[in-house]
Amino acid sequence: MKTIPIPCSRLWMTLLAMIGCCLVSLANAETITLNDNWRFLRGDAAGAEQPSFDDTQWRQVRVPHDWSIEDLPGQTHPFSKDSISKETQGYMLGGVGWYRRTLSLPDDVASKTVLLEFEAVYMDAQVWVNGQLVTRHPYGYTQFILDVSKYLHAGDNIVALRVDNPEPSSRWYSGSGIIRPAHLQIVDKVHVDPWGAAITTPTVSASRAKVHVATPLINAGDASVAARLISRIVTAKGVEVARKEASAALNANASQDIEQELDVAKPALWSTEAPNLYTLVQEVRIGDRVVDTRSTRFGIRSISFDAKRGFLLNGKRVLLKGGNIHHDNYMLGAAGIPRADARKVELMKAAGYNAIRSAHNPASKALLDAADELGILVIDEAFDMWSVKKNKNDYARFFKDNWQSDLRSMVAAGRNHPSVILWSIGNEIPNMALPAGASEAQQLAEAVRSLDATRPVTSSAHIFGFKGTDEFINKLDVAGYNYNPDLYLDDHAKFPNRVIYGSESFSAQAFNYWYPTDSMPWVIGDFVWAAVDYLGEAGIGWSTASPYPWHLSMSGEIDATGLLRPAAYYRQVVWKTGLHPLSAFIEVPFIEGTLPDRETRGEIKGWEQRDLLDSWQALGGRADFYNRKVVVYSENDEVELFVNGISKGRKHVDRASEYTAEFSVRYKPGELKVVGYNKGKPVSQWIYQTADKPAAIRLTVDRSHITADGDDLAYITAELVDAKGVRVMREKDDQPLTFKVSGAAVLAGVGNGNPVTLESFRSGQRSTWRGRVVAVVRANKTAGISTVEVSAPSLPAASASIAVGIP
């Protein structure tokens, strides 16, 4: 975390009010967020970088912001048949957009260093300050920090960004715009480098840990100074456990690295079960004056990888129960609002995952923060391509001139997060099949090792069995295998020291991927494609074709709204998590289909999942005449199925049956129940009740209290239920809902998980799909109560309240 001291004088408090920033207290220091008060234009505008340009007709937006998810002119949705990228972008459009913002600065700003920070802008961002071009940053997923001191003056200053996302640029939905938070840092001329200290833990045991801190100090002034750096380690409760002080003679307009080692007795180690965190608090002093204060959160833990023992965390073997995720947040598009990114991690942790692969780009700060807090391991990935294109306008255009700086950004942003255990230099890189592929892999791997030698380097491979590809893989420390579990045994015989993990695996083949992972020490984990559903790559988890308006992948084991799909429950059983030792679902007959290709899907394989319902309901027509297939997943020894209290059979479940039992029964309204037995005794059950017609809208709020910071979020689930409170999932009973948000929050987005609906994510009008819709509200910056009202044409309205900034 990069923080800056803000003097508490009346002048500086006036500055903060004029900038309109949100202050976030970060252990004796403050940072200014620049998420509000941006003017935005979707389209190009000649001269918009100039301070004199008139932007009064532009819309005002908050960032993180994604214009591709917004409704197109003249439409009630964002989808276009004319999309060049088609299903890869979910039939949504990129293009050019402009952002402008005014910064009002005090008279003494010339005596400060001013830093402008963007966590990510997709893509090819050009940044001007007061009409002067400061930088061009092509990559859409890496953080960049700009020293803009020389471009600024007292009074009003104009920051302008031109963002260019030409189609096709990405193989999945990228979104467009300032997609992650922006910040302003105003610091003394003598300060810690804005990327902060690098913290490592070279010695870790239960009795003692050695914490090494490398801190770059910058003197941007014109005179040499004698400075002191005081570094303290404090616990989560604020108790100081170590302190070191160092002196440095800083030359004018120069920097110097300060190395410090601090000892921590009886450290609370960070792990997936106990994610203990510490904070490094640093002060830079000149004489008795504090000129900079920084707080950096970190964890004390050790990691190691080898083919005999696998992956060890604090000396204990841990299997990576992993999932791949893309960066979008469905109804918010690519807007990486921190709470949305954190929620994704929470959903995965609750579903039994202990690891995330940030496919195929560097993870956001919010995601890494949440992983630190919850105990989720992370593979942080840099690129989906190098110099060889996968799409006409992708990052390969810029790779040669930018890969080094983008790798530095990823490592600097992630190096102090204990959750990060591997640096990935790429995914399915076409270069690995070329003669120069191995040397390119070595070049990137060595660059990462020079930045951080404490974590191994990996990459996800997709081409095997050729001399050149083996040379490529051998340049890595740990090898990621995409969709090739059959090679784990043979490749171990050829390369006995190779450490392997399944970097991508098919959800429909969960058992076949996990069995070798669980039985071969050199295989350290498996990452399913995908853990959470996402926009773009539309239909890969459902159909062989993805015609307009397909926009969701449908490959996620957690659906786009956050609901666990049946495949997630099966994975919990295969992993033996104990979270849901028994679950049952009803297969939807193809003849009932409402989505494209359901009738012709045939064999389930690859990214597809079985179309299973968590409901015992009438489907209509011939579907109710024929028997239903009931699929049961269980860790128990035996399972028994009952329909309205009558047993329909009892079956043994074990590894040989892949922890699955299937029953074929005639549909009868009422109760379907499955009972699980261990050693003949009932230990678990799963029950469905048939729903009557919809009688009410049931609202559930994930967080009833949120922060009044302009960025915090609450998710509200609206479900159709009958008079008994049973959720109604019949598609013929789905209804259009209207969401109205008033008070201290605003509506940020609405989604239902339907991959083909032509509805807006932003208007507040959204139909239920299988009886369910999820809305997101975003806090304002003034405390109060926000009320969410939900109405339907033929049902009583429902409402929920959220306290914003109120304890």
Structure keywords:
6-stranded antiparallel β-sheet; Jelly Rolls; 5 domains; 807 residues; Immunoglobulin-like; single chain; 9 helices; mainly beta; disordered N terminus; TIM Barrel; 47 strands
Structural write-up:
There is one protein chain. By secondary structure, the protein is mainly beta. The protein starts with 9 loop residues before the first helix and ends with a strand. It is 12% helix and 39% strand. Residues 1-30 have low confidence and may be disordered. It has 5 domains: 10-190, Galactose-binding domain-like (Jelly Rolls); 198-298, Immunoglobulin-like; 318-532, Glycosidases (TIM Barrel), CATH 3.20.20.80; 582-684, Immunoglobulin-like; 696-804, Sandwich (Immunoglobulin-like). It is built from 9 helices and 47 strands. The longest helix is centred in the middle third of the chain and has 16 residues, at 399-414. An 8-stranded parallel β-barrel has the order 23-24-25-26-27-28-29-30, surrounded by 6 helices.
Shape: globular
Low-confidence stretches: 1-30
Give the C-alpha Rg: 27 Å
Count of structural domains = 5
Oligomer: single chain
> What count of helical segments does DSSP give?
9
Through-space gap between termini: 26 Å
CATH class value of the largest domain: Alpha Beta
**Order of adjacent strands in the largest pleated sheet:** 23-24-25-26-27-28-29-30
Strand percentage = 35-45%
